[in-house]
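seq/struct pair 1
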Amino acid sequence: MLKEEQAPPSAPLGERTPSSVIGRRGLLKLEERLLSEGGLEVYTPTVDYRGIDLVTRHEHGGRAVYKAVQVKYSSGRAGRFLFGVMKDSFHPRPDLLVAFVCGSADQVLLIPSADLERMLARVSRDAFGKQYKVGIELRRNIFYLRQGGGRKIPLNEYLDTIILRR
């Protein structure tokens, strides 16, 4: 029997799938990809602490390097993916990456939080100003982040998971 706060595996017919279930799908897809590429250890926190969904570890120059990853997932439609980033739970720092899983594990953008913070300055927010509405679109094999005024920032430089090994 499910506890009240737990989400069902899928929503009943005609109801929307809870965002917690959708987010978990993205997390599992990313974990599978990172583990299959090798060279990284992947850890999942037991509790949601500061929006960290997973931690990676690898050896670099004889020392352990850890990266915290916040995962966002969107199944998308017609090459357009919409993500929500909560303003109060997004705290940029040097070891934090935000992973935008765009429908599948081979379409993951790993953006350093400092870079994302600069990009979010011109992204629209919800009516209460608490959540950034991050729109990413895929056009002619190039991912773009949509900003106000029709401005688009190309994101393909963030497609490679090598950023986790730096």
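seq/struct pair 2
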Amino acid sequence: MLRHQVSLCAARHECSPSRLHSAAQARRVIEQDRKSGFSAGGNIVNRFWLQQYPDGVPADVDVHQYSSLIELFEESFATFGDRKAAICMDRAITYGELDEMSAAIGAYLQSRGLARGARVAVMMPNVLQNPVVLTAGLRAGYTIVNVNPLYTPRELEHQLKDSGAEAIVILENFATTLEKVLPRTRSRVDLPRKNPDNSLHWSVASAIAG
């Protein structure tokens, strides 16, 4: 049990168990975690952040309320259609717009022949296109693979191969990185204005910005 506790504490304090030279030192680390709100087993014993919750925000969430994320999405679209779903700089989209755009992009992905459960990479920063594509992929039945838009070609190639991504939706600014590795991956890109014979699509994001 002590070895398990030491491993958990070592991970949180960014040191390996080998650097905890004695059981006494290990116990001191565990005690420090207890004081900061963690038990030795990694469970929360003092949820101090609840003091910052506004009135009306529940401390716990019923994880059985929805059968899936899709059900949560659909309810939100129907209930909050006119409200803002996401804001980026001086632009915003409503839940109604998120519903419409994600349904259109999801249908497009399905039209490209991607089977249910296929892995779709999303390589873009925190812009309004991101939640639209993310929601589209989930609604269409795909597995989303988030990709850091600042990846080097070597890092991108590794993640695409490791995840088995069959398609990628990418912000045009980062397309040069993708071009360097695409021939060595399973991912497919559609460039309708340049090469209509290819498959998936990186101008989806530009189309949303409108």
